[in-house]
């Protein structure tokens, strides 16, 4: 097993203002792996997380997923709870996850965001072309 790294950056106002004091929970298969709090710059500490060995991502015959996925939940009073699903962690790499906090309109508001598959898991189609790229973060609803 390898080790990858994650740092979370929380901001508001379309990324212009760092948000300190955000409670960040990192989960794997619904189990809490880390509980963090952002500093005055809106950053968490960099944490180590398990990931499959890097060699798998370099093997053209490997058909599995060469990274681990984690969910990251950000909670702050006055803001909607943001949960980013399927954050990719690759062995030996630092993943920096930006989370833009959104002021809460209704009590208990929550937003779920799913990240798309990594390019390492897309297979070439019949024409030798990769599928079109999509936005890294796309809200799919709140509730």
CATH superfamily: Immunoglobulins
Query: Please, how many domains?
Result: 1
In N-to-C order, the SSE pattern is EEEEEHEEEEE
Low-confidence stretches: 123-143
Strand content: over 45%
Query: Looking at the chains present, what oligomeric state does this protein adopt?
Result: single chain
Overall mean confidence score, pLDDT = 85
In CATH's first tier, which class applies? Mainly Beta
* CATH architecture annotation: Sandwich
For the largest beta-sheet, the strand count, sense and barrel status come to: 6 strands, mixed
Helix and strand content put the structural class at mainly beta
Number of helices: 1
- The helix content is under 10%
- Strand count: 10
- How are the strands ordered across the major sheet? 4-3-6-7-9-10
């Amino acid at each position: 097993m390898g080790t990858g790294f994650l740092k979370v950056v929380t901001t508001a106002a379309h990324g212009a203002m760092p948000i300190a004091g955000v409670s960040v929970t990192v989960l794997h298969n619904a189990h809490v792996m880390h509980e963090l709090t952002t500093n005055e710059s809106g950053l968490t500490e960099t944490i180590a997380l398990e990931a499959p060995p890097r060699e798998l991502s370099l093997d053209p015959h490997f058909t599995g997923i060469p990274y681990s996925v984690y969910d990251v939940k950000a909670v702050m009073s006055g803001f909607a709870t943001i949960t980013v699903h399927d954050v990719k962690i690759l062995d030996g790499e630092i993943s920096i996850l930006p989370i833009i906090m959104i002021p809460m309109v209704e009590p208990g508001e929550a937003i779920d965001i799913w990240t798309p598959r990594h390019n390492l898991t897309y297979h070439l189609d019949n024409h030798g072309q990769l599928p079109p790229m999509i936005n890294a973060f796309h809200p799919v609803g709140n509730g």
